[in-house]
Amino acid sequence: MLISGLGTPPGPENPIWTLAKKYQLTNTYSDYDSIATFNETGAIDFTGLLDDYEDAYVTFEQDAGHILTANLQDRSARAGLSLAGWKPEKDAASQAVEWWEFDFEYSVPPVYHMLWHTLQNID
Question: What is the pLDDT of residues 89-99, one digit of tens each?
Fold first, then answer.
């Protein structure tokens, strides 16, 4: 359970945090560095594709920063990932990695997200 903005004394407490404490909500740790991958036939290890995606994403973020600071025309995140070398169109394992890494994080696939808006999600 992640609750952001718990509040800072002497200010008000986040009411969601108040309810979480009242009802003793708990959380189970998710180890995102230890995941199992599957295809249509069962377990298969394609976690190396996660590293490939991360490598492309570094270039993707750099491109997004350049577009933002140079005040250039934005492009879709799909185009940005493609230019960074990530092209999962015909590979189911790569599509699954992209869902895990992008769709899950931004709640939309890259075709519906703008490139430099991804910078707003970096903590």
Answer: 989 999 999 99
Exposure letters 98-108 (e unless 16+ CB within 10 A, then b): bebbbeeeeee
Whether residue 1 has pLDDT greater than 60: no
| Separation between Cα atoms, residue 39 and residue 18, nearest integer Å | 42
